Amino acid sequence: PQALLIAVAVLIITCPCALGLAVPAAHVVIAGALMRQGVLVKDGSALERLAEADHVVFDKTGTLTLGEPRPTDLDQLSPREKSIALALAQSSRHPLSRGLGAALRAEQVVPTVLDGIAEHAGEGLSASAGPCPVALMRPRIAHGERPACELRVGEKHIVIDFIDPLRADVEATLQSLAAMGLAATILSGDAAGPVGTVAKQLRLQFVAGVQPAGKLAFLEELASGGKRVLMVGDGLNDGPALAAAHVSMAPASASDVSRQAADVVFLGESLFPVAQAVRAARRTMRAVRQNFTLAVSYNLIAVPLAVAGFVTPLIAALAMSLSSLLVVGNSLRLARGARP
After folding, report:
1. Whose CA is closest to 254, among 104, 44, 65?
2. Please, which residues have CB within 8 angstroms of residue 170's CB and are 6 or more apart in sequence?
3. DSSP per residue over 186-200, as a string?
């Protein structure tokens, strides 16, 4: 009977519950915490690869920037002109019209009532505000490198410039990544001029005018140099690079191809979820190692005691349950690790 009790105690003690919970418990807790912060992790292996990343490659338009043109000089418009501009802008799906409409609505502008709104392909919109002809058109004269539109109210023509602004927390994100040892590079298909301007502002190295095949080649070059690259992009041309990178992230506003290829998707206009996800992934892997240490230590101590007959089946069951609770409790601490 004593031998049987010892055998039962040993079997209970060696039940691999704690070892089995070590990884999934940590992954589930951190994935849930990140989801509440607007970061969707597609699978547990993405967290492991994210924790290993040591270099970040960013696309520019739609990733470092919002990908939404915004007007720069609305103060030149009178209240009536803003009202007319909003009425015209909200009648079009053109990116400049959407950007203008969003900016005017943010100022609580109320659109005026227009008659006979007509959209002219490649040119813009025209209508009438009572007896006054109005239009939101392509500028008649080239207006520098920036995108622009021209508001026409009667005989008055007003050119409105647009920029694609950086995400508000780009610099804070880059600083946080650098503090974790991740260097950053801009890899963009845009022309060298606009990319260079952003790179200079952010003090980053850049490669511009790159086609999808060129992006793949650049990532392969980094990988051959021993880098584990985190690729962050949003465009259709970023899809192959996102799929080929060691790990990848995309904003929710990205193209369908990029969202499908990315391992992690983040919501909102903030870029800080990139740094937040890397930090959370590293904390997760530390917790996983701690969980394995707890589980193995439990077995190293408890199994010899059970074999020596010092542990009854009841105590063995309690000890096994306690080891599992320790692993789960250690994993639950990760919920705080996903906070900004």
Report:
1. 65
2. 64, 202, 271
3. EE-SS-HHHHHHHHH
Q: Give the gyration radius of the chain's Cα atoms.
A: 28
- Integer Cα distance of 325 and 320 in angstroms: 9
Instruction: List Cβ<8 Å contacts ≥24 apart for 235-243.
Output: 235/59, 235/61, 235/62, 235/189, 237/189, 237/211, 237/212, 238/59, 238/212, 239/212, 240/212, 240/213, 240/215, 240/216, 241/57, 241/187, 241/212, 241/215, 241/216
- Residue-wise pLDDT for 126-183, tens only, equals 999 999 999 999 887 755 556 789 999 999 999 999 988 899 899 999 999 999 999 9
On the CB side of 13, CA atoms within 13 Å amount to: 26
C-alpha–C-alpha distance, residues 255 and 250, integer Å: 9
Q: What is the DSSP string of 205-227?
A: EEE-S--HHHHHHHHHHHHHTT-
Among 333, 332, 303, 334, smallest CA distance to 319 is for: 303
pLDDT of residue 208: 92
Partners of 161 in the β-ladder: 148
Angle among Cα 16, 21, 26 to the nearest 5 degrees reads 155
CB 8 within 8 A of CB 315: no
Location of structure tokens 């490669």: 207
Which single residue is written with the structure tokens 């500028």? 139
What is the identity of the amino acid at 37? Q
Name the residue with tokens 């547990």: 44
Instruction: Compute the distance between CA of residue 316 and CA of residue 302 in angstroms, rounded to an integer.
Output: 8
Dump pLDDT digits (tens) for 134-149. Answer: 999 988 775 555 678 9
Amino acid, single-letter form, for residue 143:
H
Token pair belonging to 144: 């520098």
Residues belonging to the active site: 59
Question: Contact at 8 Å (CB) between 316 and 13?
Answer: yes
